[in-house]
Amino acid sequence: MQVLIGLIVPFLGTALGSALVFFMKKEINKKVEKLLLGFAAGVMIAASIWSLLIPALDMVDGEFNWVPAAIGFIAGIIFLLILDTVIPHQHLETEETEGIQTNHRKSTKLMLAVTLHNLPEGMAVGVVFAGFLLGNAGIAVTEAIALAVGIAIQNFPEGAIVSMPLKNSGLTKGKAFLYGTLSGIVEPLGAILTILFANLVIPILPYLLAFAAGAMIYVVVEELIPESQAGKHSNIGTIGVALGFVLMMILDVALG
Q1: Within its chain, how far is the Cα of 256 from the centroid?
Q2: pTM as predicted
Q3: What is the average pLDDT across 207-236?
Q4: What is the DSSP string of 10-39?
Q5: What is the pLDDT of residues 95-106, one digit of tens each?
Q6: 68, 98, 169, 227: which could form a disulfide with 104 (CB 3.0–4.6 Å)?
């Protein structure tokens, strides 16, 4: 039951964030958007450190215990770089003079990019729960749930920044919510597939944890921070980063 809850929680974060579209009159306030983007960035940075990189280092003994973490981290960065090359990242802003069809194409690309980025996050949850289930990776269930909660928290604004632009592009609120929610469905699927192959995972667990950390940091540097710092009121995005980082640090340390 604990594992099931841990797999569902990140998806619920995306769904709840997408549901904000029902309270949307025109478009999300820019200051609120910057705060949410910064908050998501802070959560992901802290999760990458305490939930992924530190456990990856602790799982390997010896003088060169940093090697799997370094290799996995770089591999995660390269993986997301390739995804962004195949499907270019689409920023949230759209000119008012653009037509609905152009806005819709941009919003669809954003949804697809977020969906692809959610895959390694689901793998991160699955890897940690696989380590807990096998009982020999030094991972407690509280650590696994803390990671799931942290990812759910950052998925909340992520769901909102998918569904709201879709609503702006001309979709109904119901469809915008549905597509925003579906962008997070790959997370439990990725986690379940990882757990099913748990016996094969433990030998490469440090690499996979660091891989997920690299993927998260790429999303933070490439997407969330630039969006939160663009234009006016960049300090609001910075405050969001601090709040998100501290919250995730507390979740990870206190629950772990």
Answers
A1: 20
A2: 0.68
A3: 85
A4: HHHHHHHHHGGGGG-SSS--HHHHHHHHHH
A5: 444 444 555 555
A6: 169
